């Protein structure tokens, strides 16, 4: 059974490859050097040449602020390429798992979003990811779109590694306290995807195709998240930081607006796939412990 992972060198892709390699699959990873998503004509050539049984798309344009300038590139990678991948998957009669984002929502809510809630992105990155979802839905029936949020892990650039670095370098950190979401460890998401792939491959139950949410449990602000990162990190590192101060979004202007509250309700994926959902603090503590254990 051959599983193709697109974006295998990214933050999620690397953890997913490691997780799938423990299974009895023939796992093939493709990075942007092999397949540039801006070259739509290459997509069917590469997919047909590999001839996988399942495709997982972890590749995306993820620089939220730069997307406000590089709109054409972001659109090709986040909308056009997933649509083309889905079209080819339909022609080859193979399922697609596609990773999307909480940023498809406006953030103007007082409760976690469910999959059927109205989408209304507040930045261009969010619009391209939403349009990618719609492009997939329009051409492929056997697809799972998994929205996740606030991803972090040992690989690539992310909030956790940034805070750990700044805590070593600065006496004081200022972190936005009026944006809320669910931190999600790439390992947890990778394990959930692997379990879903196993169900698809072995047909152990009827697959209900559609959109799903997966994230760490419980809502938190960026400020609260940063404080917990420093709390866990100082067990292993010599930090300079003495103070972590909460600030408003208006005090930290960015090119792209962020949703105020984009927490995700993950009840559906738990009910249909029985995946593991963990409190974000538990996952964060384990990730930081492993991160320092590997690099000390």
Summarize the structure.
The chain has 296 residues and is of the alpha/beta class. The protein contains nine helices and twelve strands.
List the helices and strands and how they pair.
Elements: E1 2-6, H1 11-20, E2 26-30, H2 42-50, E3 54-57, H3 71-92, E4 96-101, H4 124-139, E5 143-148, E6 151-152, H5 159-169, E7 172-176, E8 180-181, E9 184-185, H6 186-202, E10 210-213, E11 220-221, H7 222-233, E12 243-247, H8 267-273, H9 280-295
Parallel strand pairs: 1-2, 1-3, 3-4, 4-5, 5-10, 6-9, 7-12
Antiparallel strand pairs: 8-11
Helix pairs in contact: 1-6, 2-3, 3-4, 5-7, 7-9
Question: If you compute it from the alpha carbons, what radius of gyration comes out, rounded to the nearest whole angstrom?
Answer: 19 Å
The first-to-last residue Cα distance is 38 Å
Would you list the SSEs in sequence order as H and E?
A: EHEHEHEHEEHEEEHEEHEHH
Structural class of the secondary elements? alpha/beta
What does this structure look like?
This protein is an alpha/beta fold. It has a single domain (2-156, 184-218, 258-279), classed as NAD(P)-binding Rossmann-like Domain (Rossmann fold, 3-Layer(aba) Sandwich). It has helices at 11-20, 42-50, 71-92, 124-139, 159-169, 186-202, 222-233, 267-273, 280-295; strands spanning 2-6, 26-30, 54-57, 96-101, 143-148, 151-152, 172-176, 180-181, 184-185, 210-213, 220-221, 243-247. The strands form four sheets. It has a six-stranded parallel beta sheet with strand order 2-1-3-4-5-10, sandwiched between helices. Helix 1 (11-20) packs across helix 6 and helix 2 packs parallel to helix 3. It is globular and about 55 Å long. The model has no long low-confidence stretch (mean pLDDT 96).
